[in-house]
Amino acid sequence: MGNEEIVQFLNHLALERHVAASTQNLALCAIVFLYHEVLKKNIGELEQLKRAKKPDHLPTVLSKSEVSQLLQHLHGIPLMVCSLLYGSGLRISEALRLKVHDLDFDYHQITVRRAKGNKDRITMMPESLAKMLKIHIIKVKNLHNQDLARGFGKTILPNALCKKYPDASSEFGWQYLFPSRYRRPDPKTGFRHRYHISPKNIQRALKNAARKAQIVKKVSPHTLRHTFATHLLQNGYDIRIVQDLLGHKNLKTTSIYLHVLNRGGRGVKSPLDG
């Protein structure tokens, strides 16, 4: 089988099976890898390929009262993490990868390192969350000191920093802000590190909080990031500022929240409302 059969199969996925664009793309990448790396054959240009269309979905956004009710049913670490998702616009992965030194209490800002696109950015730290975070950091430091006393306390450093700064992995500033309860072995070195908590813990707590708050919308950690952006635009902030805070490369990605603000008829008043 060659170019013609590959195109037929991929078109079948899109036109008859109605798979998502990501599913068709995954199949294409797998086939290209098979032919290039295993079969050592050139499949040429797939000129007749029909791409599955990616649907335009508007993100789910909570109202301010819904966010307030949701946070009231969260406690401890899930409350802090979800407050950062909504108050700072972080992705769940970005929040959990935060290190202690990424928080700047003097300037009320958070440095998000190696975010999507492998770029760093700075976003705000909610002042209302500062006291809770400071108390939490004291607990993290006590845990770190206990680990050091037991011969552990080293964290995983990005890239080759462990070679350039061999002692940095034991420094408190490099420890995860939300460390796991358990130490797990590094597959490469075998040393037992304390990684960050699992996102499943936050997802589970958020789901339970939404149920208790009787919120019928589908709520996920990313919903809080969507809500962060929408509420900033509602408050009159420039869309380019929101773009920088979210870390979007393209303004078009951020502009979807303008559609969220105008949904229900693009801001047009219904004739039923006079």
Task: Write up this protein.
With 274 residues, this protein is mainly α. The chain has two domains: 55 residues, Orthogonal Bundle (DNA polymerase, domain 1); 211 residues, Intergrase catalytic core (hpI Integrase, Chain A, Orthogonal Bundle). Helices cover 47% and strands 5% of the residues. The strands form two sheets. A three-stranded antiparallel β-sheet has the order 1-2-3. It has a two-stranded antiparallel sheet with strand order 4-5. A hairpin with a 4-residue loop joins β1 and β2. The longest helix has 20 residues. It is globular, with a radius of gyration of 23 Å.
Short description:
The protein is mainly alpha-helical. Helices cover 47% and strands 5% of the residues. The chain is globular.
Low-confidence stretches: none
Biggest sheet: strand arrangement: 1-2-3
> What is the percentage of strand-forming residues?
5-15%
In CATH's first tier, which class of the largest domain applies? Mainly Alpha
What about the largest sheet? Answer: 3 strands, antiparallel
Number of domains: 2
Helix-strand category: mainly alpha
The CATH superfamily label of the largest domain reads: Intergrase catalytic core
In total, the number of strands is 5
Mean pLDDT: 89
Radius of gyration, taken over Cα atoms and rounded to an integer in Å: 23 Å
Shape: globular
Give the helix level as a range of percent: 40-55%
What is the terminal separation in angstroms? 64 Å
Helix/strand layout:
Elements: H1 3-15, H2 21-38, H3 64-72, H4 76-88, H5 92-96, E1 103-104, E2 109-112, E3 121-124, H6 130-149, H7 161-164, E4 184-185, E5 192-193, H8 199-212, H9 221-234, H10 239-246, H11 251-254, H12 256-262
Antiparallel strand pairs: 1-2, 2-3, 4-5
Helix pairs in contact: 1-2, 3-8, 4-8, 4-9, 9-12
